[in-house]
Amino acid sequence: MDLSIWIVFIGTALIGICAALVGTFTFLQKKSLIGDAISHSILPGIVLAYMLSGQRTTWILMLGAFCAGWFATQQISWLQRKTKLKSDTIVAATLSMFFAFGLALLSYIQGRPDDGQAGLSDFLFGKIAALDIRDLYLFLGVSAVIVIAVVLRYRVMYSFAFNREFMISKGFSLRWNDFILNSMTILVVAMGVQAVGVVLMSALLIIPVLSARMLTYRLNRMLLVALTLGTCSSLLGSYISILGTNIPTGPCIIMVLSTCAIVIALTVKLQTKRKSHGK
Amino acid sequence: MENDVLMILTACSVAIPASLLGVLLVSKSLVMVGDAISHAVLPGIVVAYLLSGTRDSGPMLLGAAATGFLTTFLIDFLRRKWQIQEDAAIGFTFTFLFAAGVLLIALFAGKNSDLDQECVLYGDLETSILDQVIVGGYLYGTRAILQLLPLTIVLLVVIIFGFKGWKVWAFNPQFGSFIGIPTRLFQLILMLLLSIHAVLSFESVGVILVVGLLVLPAATALQFSKTLSRTFCYAACIGIVSCILGVFLGKWINISISPLIVCVNGLIFLISVVLSPYKRKADYTVKENNLKFQDFKN
Fold it and tell me: What is the C-alpha to C-alpha distance for residues B55 and B45, in angstroms, rounded to an integer?
C-alpha cells in the first residue's frame, strides 16, 4: 500500500466521523436542510479564495469556504428576521443565490488564459485522490476542534434537541447554540467538499443519522451507529472510486451510504413484521 | 442582435413557467420538494438517454415524469410509513437519486456524448439557442422555446381555470376537502408540471439553478403583493426583467449566462426585502430566533 492511499483513507475516515457527529445534532434539531444550503453556498467562497490568492492550497480554500458559509447563515437569519417568508423559501433562495454566484465566478475564471483553475471544478463532485500530507494535518486539526466542541457541549445540544423551551427558560441562549451548531456544520462541510463535492455534501450529514435513527432511539447508541456507518461507507466509497478510472468520489460514497440505509430500513421493517406476527 | 433576442426569448420561456410554478410552491411551502424534484429528474433523463440513444424529448419526458412521481412518492412514503421527519426524508431522496444519475453518466455515457457532469449542473444557454427550428426559410424559434411554450400555455390554463381550487389548496386544504375539491389531484398535477418543466429547461439552465428561477421571483413578488393573482403577475414580470438584465450583463462581462440570471434575480430579491412595505413587525411577532425568557413569563 502506498502512502498516498493511506492519506486518502484517513482523510475520508475523518470526514465521515465529523459529518456523522455534527449531522446527528442538526438532524435532531430539524435543521438538515441548513446543511444543504451551507454546502451549496460554499462554492463562491472557494472560487473567490482561489481568485484572490492565485493558488489552490487547501487551507486558503477552506478559509474562503468558511467565510462564504458564514455569510449564508447570516443571510438566512437576517431574512428570517426581516421578512414574512417561510423558512424553506428563505433557505432555497439563499442556496440558489450563492450557488449561482459561485457558478458565475467559476465560468469567469474558466474563461481566463491561465490554467491553474483546472482542478477547481473538482469541488462540484469531489475528488479525494488530490489529498496530500499537509491537508491531512489540517483535517486532523479541524476534526479535533469539532470533536472537542461536541464533547464539551454534548449535554446542552442534547437538551436543545429535545426540549428547547425548557432550555430557553433556563437561560441558555438559543442564538449562541445555533451559532455553534452552524459553525460546526460549516467546518465539516468545508472539509468534506474535498471528497464529496458541494452538491452532495448534505447527504453525508443526513443519511448515516437517518439509518441510525431507524435502528435505535437512544442518543448515544444512535451516535455510535451513525459514526460507524458514516466512516465505513465513506471508506468503501472512496476505495471503489479509486479502483475505477473515471468515477467521481462523491456520488460513489453517497450510493454506498444510501444502499446501506435502504438495507437497514428493509431489515428493520421485516423484523418488526415478524415480531408482530409472533404475538 | 438577433442572437440576443433569441437568447432573451429562450431564457424567458424557461423563467415564466418557473416563476408561476414557484408562486404555488412558495405559498404551500413545498419549495424544498420542488428542489428535490428538479435534482431527481436527472436519473430519469440519463436512463431515457441511455435506452433510446437520442436526446429526443419524448423518452426524456417519460423518464422525467416517472422519476418526478418516484420522488414525491418516496418522500411521502418515508414520512408516512417510516415516520422520518420531512427535511431528512427530502434530503435523503434527492441526494440518492441525484448521485445515481451522476454515477450513471460517469459510467455509461462516454466522453464524447452530449451528456456530461458539468453541463448537467449549469446548462448552456449559449449553445441551446443554436438548436433552431427553421421551416421553409423562416425562423420560428429555438427548440427550447417551442417545447416550453405549450407547457406555459397548459400551465396558464390550469392556473386560470382552477384558480379558486389552487387558492383553497394552498391556504385551506381542510376546507377544500370538506367541500369536495380534490386537493391531492391538484398537488399531483403541480408535481407533474414541475418535473416536465425541469426536463425541458435542463439543457438551458441545468438541474440545480432551476430552483433559483422557481423560488426567487415568487419570494420577491411576495414582498410587494397581498393577493395570489397579483403575486402571479409580479413574479412573471420579475422573471422576465431578470432574464433581460442577465443576458445583457452576461454579454458585457462575457461569462456564462444562466448563473447570471439567477444572480440578478437574487439581487432584486435582496433589494426588494430592504424596500418592502410589508416588513415583519418585531413588536407583536415572536420569531424562534428571538425567543427570550421574557416571552415565556406570561
Answer: 9
